[in-house]
Amino acid sequence: MIQLTNVNKYFGPLHVLRDVNLTVKSGEKLVVIGPSGSGKSTLIRCMNLLEKPTSGSVIVDGVNITEPGAKVAQVRQSIGMVFQQFNLYPHKTVLENVTMAPILIQGIAPGAAEESGMVYLKRVGLDHKAKAYPSQLSGGQMQRVAIARALNMKPKIMLFDEPTSALDPEMIQEVLDVMVGLASEGITMVVVTHEMGFAREVSDRVIFMDEGQIMEEADPEHFFTNPTNERTKLFLSRILRA
Amino acid sequence: MKRILSSVLVGVLSLGLLAGCGGSQSASVGIKSDDPVIKKIQARGVLNAGVKVDVPKFGFRDIKTEKIDGFEVDLVRALAKEILGKNDDKAIHLEGVTSKTRGALLDDGSIDIVAATFTINDQRKTQWNFSDPYYVDNITFLVRKDSGFKSMKDLNGKKIGVSQTTTTRKAIETEALKQNIAVDFLELPGFPEVKAALDAKRVDAFSVDGSILLGYLDNNTMLLPDKFGPQEYGIATNLHNTALAKVVNDVINRMLKNGEMDTLLKKWGLK
Amino acid sequence: MNLFAGQQWQALFEARALFAKGLGQTVVTSALALLLSLVIGAVIGALGTAPWRIARAVNRTYVDLVQNLPLVTLVAILFFGLPHLGVNVPVFGIGVLCLGVYHGAYIAEVIRAGIQSIHRGQLEAAFSQGFTYVKAMRHIILPQAFQVILPPLTNQAVSLIKNSAVLNMIGAGEMMNVADSWAGQNSYYGPTYLLIWALFFALCFPLAQWARRLEQRAIRARGQEVQAR
Known about the structure:
heterotrimer; A: about 240 residues; alpha/beta; six-stranded mixed beta sheet; globular; B: about 270 residues; D-Maltodextrin-Binding Protein, domain 2; five-stranded mixed beta sheet; about 40% helix
């Protein structure tokens, strides 16, 4: 479903992604962990081309989006993204946030978009807030709306860039619950996170990134109980202690 | 002999002492007056006068020497002689004024008199004192040579540039009625602006007193032969300074009677 | 000369038709110039945020050129200079043009800053959903920028109205011109300029108050957002 081949990314002199090769299978739940500055955010943002690789190719659902002339906007319609900072549209209500893109981009009739929008809002437990504005919601509520917004585009892939890192601790669980529920469906998910409990529970595969490279990848069982790489061991010991 | 000499010495010294104790600081003798305004000028030892600096022959600053000279400057000197007893450069302070600033500067006391092509009219007489007229000028037009205008009649339907605070517009309107023509006006803040407008073809003619226009004449412009709306110039003083006004008027009238004025006019080629 | 002599106020009252005309001229000139400056500002301002370097260069050039020129100078250049190039714009047109071009530069900056003040995350969220740059600007960025832009924009409008007084120097017949011309004839400067001050105040103060209210509303809205995070 997603294929990164020899991807390199430079920010000025900074070599953020070093020759990364990664394949994500359709329906796979992939979790990416690593220290800050490891390039994991950049990695996930290359998947919908919010970051453009300096070299290398990214193929999503059969389309090479790094090719010049590629119809990136079109491919993005089948990729949903949830951001650390939520990025809800503050000048629109919750329901409008959820239905804007389907109506304006996919050309779906407003009635149909609202209907499916309400279904997703109900699923994340916020249908009663449909007419509210983002400024009236808590962080956890906003993130759940963000998930519903992404889902209403009926994407094949969902990307989560540290979705709970900006939340107060008491709100993290409500968002993780939604994500766990989502994982039980066939959608492809790539999640960058520090939530190890979630990673163990939901993922099919975990990869550890450090200094722009994938240091280790394994299924959750082996990854957490028996990591082979030294740096992985170090990172896990630090993060699991906390 | 020694006794006569010493008495004469004592006499001279005491006279000198008396003169020194006469109240006035200056060694010269101006008109005697109890009026506080005149006394203030005498105490100062300098007559502050507003004059033009851009009207050749009346009040004009020479670019090279930076000195202001002209017929009206000479009038100022004559008045200084009367009030202060001297008329050299140290006795007068010449302040360059425009048609806009001359009234205001009289009102706030910055200057004592104005000798700056100031036309006398009834409206203005309610705001300042004017001496009897010392000169009569007429209004005329400055036009571009290439516009082909020969007289005022050619200005029918054209745009005339005038300066704010001048009496020109009213005079033109009166004359236009007489000549059966209709004209349009553009009123700008000052003479340089109107001249620039003429050069830029924003107006077809620049109109004000002929003497002032002489200061703006150049190779591309010419004066029309028409002369109308006689403008009488007078020396102006603050409305409250009646004693000063009387002194000024007396001097002007004396000069008109005894031929001094004529001499000055001839000196400056105005007669 | 008593600045407040009853006779002068009387004369001023009798000349009210003249001043009404001047007031009307100020209003019309300002309104048209404001319209022009909004159009120029929107175009130049949007160019300043575009992803293409040439567009941004156009923005920088226009803004730098105009913002470093005094309005008086601009008026003089266009009023006296254009005819020498064979272009004859009537006095009224020069007034509208100068004010529009001048304030267009400031409004361009207001609009550019407003657009850029919108968090980059908004654009990224829009892109991630498949919005094109143009669609994102239209539906997501510009509507939000508008709220931010409105208060400083209103301030520019007030500034423009006050600057219209400069047009006295070309005899444009607006309030200041009428005042100078009338007071120039009779020297009733005191009452005349007090009246002009009052008229400008009457025009500008309501606008400035409205700008202040808009700013408070914008601050409250942003404050709520920050809290919720």
